[in-house]
Specification:
single chain; 343 residues; alpha/beta; Rossmann fold; nine-stranded mixed β-sheet; 12 helices
Length: 343
């Protein structure tokens, strides 16, 4: 194994606070709470100290965990929760009903896992042009909203932050909502997590393509970022598969279903705690069985990254999931911004 110093050149990346947060290990300056709405869990973490063990910026981080967004009932319930959390963050930032908003969709339309931002913004109700027409009296229940999809720097040659800053200077919005696809370091969270934060966002950071930060410090107005993890690195997929393999053997051992390849209850299987002994792990995996979960992850990362095989992976049904997720986010944003929005 490489030393910690050597491994820094292969830094493991994630955009999600929940990937590095342990609710059982609290410290001064980090406050958290969990709420549950049926099958939807909401974790809220407030960071008040710039220097903290999570290495995250000060701000409020809301993580919404859910199951199948393609199910109509689940999608409707998720929409309600996102609306509630957006309204909470509006209140926290003291955003008033008549304040102007710019909604930005980051990402690449041509790459489905990265198309969440553009596809969501395409469905946002933009009203700013109506406010610019003197002869029209706009219903005050509809906020002054502008939308923009900057594209990717590889296509435009311009940093998204520079384009957005120029638009802000021109149209003077009071706050910005940014939507983007994220990366996670856990299989369980892909397409099943929404992160909402007022701390800003680094476009492309989760896929080793760091662009300029979009935040209050760079745009000089409040920035609310909304992200969904749609990709995962290959090393995570491999290391998580090893853990599921151990869990499978442990589950079968405990429940005496030794002849069944798939457990009777999938939820029980996923939530099952691996109870294999060190000796049993070593018998199944050889030398790998002597390593802890994080050590296995680091080893696979160390092997795949230098040779260029630590690919970004996404589920095969990503097209349909992005379509449904963008619909939920667009409806939630529209209903949070416009009192009279109905569809």
């Amino acid at each position: 194994m490489k030393s910690e110093k050597d491994l820094k050149q292969y830094s493991i990346r994630t955009d999600l606070l929940v990937d590095v947060f342990d609710i059982n290990q609290q410290e001064e300056g980090i406050v958290s709470k969990v709420e549950e709405y049926d099958d939807i869990k909401v974790l809220e973490v407030s960071i008040t100290k710039e220097e903290n063990k999570l290495h995250k910026k000060k701000g409020r981080y809301v993580t919404i965990s859910y199951q199948d967004v393609t199910d109509k009932v689940n999608a409707k319930n998720l929409e309600k929760v996102v609306i509630a959390e957006l309204k909470k963050i509006f209140a926290y930032l003291e955003i008033q009903e008549k304040q102007k908003c710019l909604v930005v969709g980051l990402g690449n339309r041509k790459a489905t896992p990265d198309a969440l931002g553009p596809k969501t913004v395409e469905q946002i109700l933009a009203t700013r042009y109506l406010y610019e027409i003197e002869q029209i009296q706009v219903d005050p229940n509809y906020r002054n909203v502008a939308t923009f999809i900057p594209g990717v720097t590889g296509d435009t040659g311009i940093e998204s932050s520079d384009i957005i800053l120029g638009i802000i200077d021109q149209i003077k919005p009071d706050f910005v909502i940014v939507i983007d696809a994220l990366a996670s370091s856990s299989m369980d969270r892909i397409n099943k997590t929404i992160q909402i934060t007022d701390s800003g966002i680094h476009p492309g950071s989760g896929v080793y393509n760091n662009r300029k930060e979009l935040s209050y410090e760079t745009l000089h107005i409040p920035v609310i970022s909304i992200g969904v993890p749609t990709v995962i690195e290959a090393f995570v997929l491999v290391s998580d598969t090893i853990q599921y393999l151990l869990k499978h053997f442990s589950y079968n051992k405990e429940t005496y279903h030794k002849n069944k390849l798939i457990p009777v209850t999938m939820r029980d299987y996923l939530e099952h705690t691996n109870e294999l002994s060190k000796e049993e792990k070593t018998r199944l995996l050889g030398e790998l069985g002597n390593l802890e979960e994080e050590e296995i992850k680091e080893l696979i990362f160390e092997v795949l990254t230098p040779i260029g095989y630590n690919m970004m992976v996404t589920p095969k049904e990503i097209d349909f999931v992005i379509e449904k997720t963008s619909e939920v986010l667009a409806l939630a944003i529209n209903k949070s911004l416009h009192k009279n929005f109905d569809i």
